[in-house]
Amino acid sequence: MSLSDIPLRTLTDAPTTLGELTSGKAALIVNVASRCGLTPQYAGLVKLQEEYGPRGLTVVGVPCNQFAGQEPGSAEEIQQFCATTYGVDFPLLEKTDVNGPYRHPLYAELTQAADGDGEAGDIQWNFEKFLVDGEGRVVARFRPGVTPEDPSITAAVEKLL
To answer: Exactly one of 29, 33, 36, 106 is catalytic; which is it?
Structure first.
């Protein structure tokens, strides 16, 4: 099964797939959290969506509470925080496990992709990023410390689009 076809649920509990969310175009999938030292990366993700959205990129946020309980809120609280604090208007999925025995099938597939150092496996922390092409293939993986403004991300997005 392609990443594009894996069943997902939005933050508002609507069924969807990555293919439906992106209209078959590129996606940057990011596990996010509202109470993390990396939370300001939301601002960069919003800028990526604004700049590259018209060219075919959709940022997809995946709230996750597996890292020090940094996403404890309800769906409504997460949505309100993202919208009012950072102006997030890209799709957000339901709170999801990205590691461990209850890892979502999306992340079971994503974590098989290697980063720039050739390392695959578990998500290290909040704000790990996966660039996926319109066919549902992972073309790049960026660890949490790589900010959305990093030239490696913009270069990968430019190359893909």
So the answer is: 36
